[in-house]
Amino acid sequence: MYIFGSEHRPVPLKHHVVGKRSHHKGNEFLFDKSLNYQLWPMIKRYSSNKPTLVFCSTRKGCEAAAKAIIQDMQSEQYPHGFVGSEQQKMMLKRTSTRLRDKGLKEVLDYGIGLHTAGLNSIERQTVERLFFEGHLRVICATSTLAQGVNLPACRSSAEPIAT
Distance (Å, rounded) from C-alpha 141 to C-alpha 146? Predict the structure, then answer.
C-alpha cells in the first residue's frame, strides 16, 4: 500500500467534508442524482476560483455531474461555464473536434472535462493537459484519476459511496 500525502502534490489539497441528509427514503439513485445539484454551490463556496476535481463512482455519474454543473451555472447567468475568453473558447472548440467521446465533447466547451475509463488514452491525456494548462477548471472523474496526485487541483469533491 502506498500513501500519498500533500507533500507529493504540486499544490496543497484542501479537504472539506459536507454531509447531506437524504430526503428520498432509501432511494439511493435519487439521492445520488440530487447531490449533483449541490456541486456548483460547493465549487463556488470552496474553490476560490481554482481548479477542482469531482470524483464520481461511474462514467455516467461523471457526465451527469458535469451536465448538472453546467445547467446550474447557466441558470445563474454563466452561459459559457468556466470559459473566460474568446481565445479559450476557440481553443476548446478546436480540441473538441479531435475527440471521439460525445459526453466529453458536450462539456469541454464549458471548461469542464471528464476523465473515465471510457475515454481513450489520447482523450485522457488531452483532458489532463488542458487541466494542467488552466484551460479546464473542473474535471469530473472516476477512480482512473486516483486522487489527483499529478494534477494541480486545489479542491477535490467526492460523491458518496454506499456502505
Answer: 9
Query: Is the model's pTM score more than 0.70?
Result: yes
User: Regarding predicted confidence, which is higher, 92 or 155?
Assistant: 92
Does residue 103 carry a pLDDT above 70?
Answer: yes
Q: DSSP alpha helices (H): ranges in 10-101?
A: 28-36, 39-46, 59-75, 86-97
Where are the extended beta strands (E) located within the chain? 52-55, 112-115, 138-141, 155-158
Determine the Cα–Cα distance for residues 65 and 34; give it in Å rounded to an integer.
10
Q: How many alpha carbons lie under 13 Å from residue 24 in its C-beta half-sphere?
A: 12
Helices (H) and strands (E) in the chain, counts: 6, 4
∠ CA 132-138-143 to the nearest 5 degrees?
A: 85
User: Residue 62: which of 118, 12, 122 has the closest Cα?
Assistant: 118
* φ and ψ at residue 158, rounded to 5 degrees: -120, 135
Q: Say if CB 144 and CB 3 are below 8 A apart.
A: no
**Those residues with Cβ within 8 angstroms of residue 108's Cβ, 6 or more apart along the chain or in another chain:** 92, 95, 96, 99, 130, 136
Q: What cell does 72 get?
A: 446550474
